[in-house]
Amino acid sequence: QKHEQKIRYFGMLGRWDDSQKFLSDHPYLVCEETAKYLILWCFHLEAEQKRALMEQIAHQAVAIQFIIEMARSCNVDPRGCFRLFFQKAKVREEGYLEAFKTELEAFKSRVRICSQSQGFQAMSVQNPSVYTVYVYIEMKLSILHLLQNASDLQGCINRSVCNLNSMLQKDEEPKMMDTI
User: Fold this and answer.
1) Which of 11, 30, 84, 102 qualifies as a FRET site for 18, CA 20 to 30 Å off?
2) CA distance to 32, 76, 171, per residue, from 69 (Å)
């Protein structure tokens, strides 16, 4: 609740550069709570039939989740590797962006399908946080599966993380939270 306005602002950003800059200014938002908030917002938007806005927020939710899973697989703090995620996205690194797009489409599809079900409507009224956690866990497993099964992608992530310290040292605006 304390950061709700900032999370909503982040959710509305559409360009990689804008998202990276915003997270550079607010690195504490690179966390699971932000991802959960964005996921829940997607379900509310779909229920309100605001599909285009839901798809934008879904993009940002998947981006945050990718950053968190990248950090987890490399055993680093997510606040220290979000720049690497954006670097890969902006240069359209083969395999990486494809995995991102695959998960984004799968997530949007899950939101659409689940929001249309009778069970979702009943569950979202009774206890929306339980359903959000379920969808969140499903998304995490899906992303983790993509990362683990894409050996070229995993190797690329590992090489990139190994070079992360040198990349961060070259950054013009080093931030205290960027250290691993």
Assistant:
1) 102
2) 10, 10, 23
